[in-house]
């Protein structure tokens, strides 16, 4: 099971839906208007369960170890840091689960990336692998923890 935090444009959902091994994926998005615009496909997949609201509140009700992967497609680094630091994301992952999140531009937001790497290492107690991709409208840096 996969959780997508943010990602209302549907791009991440579109990519997840290409994998038949994923039986169910939840998306938690705070902004219904972004969903209504539907810039990308993915919401039509019958495996998608949409939850509109605050991710912190959503995670309070998630059973421990529910998700195999959590993909955070949000441009809010404060949300990412607070979700990691209060351990709610880690609690929602099964042992060996993989979280992945955007972490701002590696050219302009090095301090934010350093903070998130530190928080990920402290919270997940695993190795933190970093990769980056230049996307014209979203120059972001992604972290994957294993």
Automatic annotation (TrEMBL):
GO terms for biological process: spermidine biosynthetic process. Residues 1-146 form the PABS domain. Keywords: Polyamine biosynthesis, Transferase. Transmembrane segments: none annotated. GO terms for cellular component: cytosol. It holds the Pfam family Spermine_synth. The lineage of its organism: Eukaryota, Viridiplantae, Streptophyta, Embryophyta, Tracheophyta. InterPro entries: PABS, SAM-dependent_MTases_sf, Spermi_synthase. The keyword Transferase applies. This is Spermine synthase.
């Amino acid at each position: 099971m996969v959780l997508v935090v943010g990602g209302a444009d549907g791009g991440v959902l579109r990519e997840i839906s290409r994998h038949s091994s994923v039986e169910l994926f939840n998306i938690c998005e705070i902004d219904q208007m972004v969903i209504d615009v539907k810039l990308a496909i993915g919401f039509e997949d019958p495996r998608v369960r949409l939850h509109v609201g605050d991710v912190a509140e959503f995670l309070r009700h998630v059973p421990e170890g529910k998700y195999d992967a959590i993909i955070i497609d949000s441009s809010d680094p404060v949300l990412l840091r607070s979700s990691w630091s209060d351990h709610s994301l880690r609690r929602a992952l099964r042992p060996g689960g993989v979280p992945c999140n955007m972490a701002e531009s590696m050219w302009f937001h090095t301090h934010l990336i350093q903070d998130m790497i530190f928080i990920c290492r402290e919270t997940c107690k695993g190795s933190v692998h970093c990769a980056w991709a230049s996307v014209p409208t979203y120059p972001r840096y992604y972290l994957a923890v294993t």
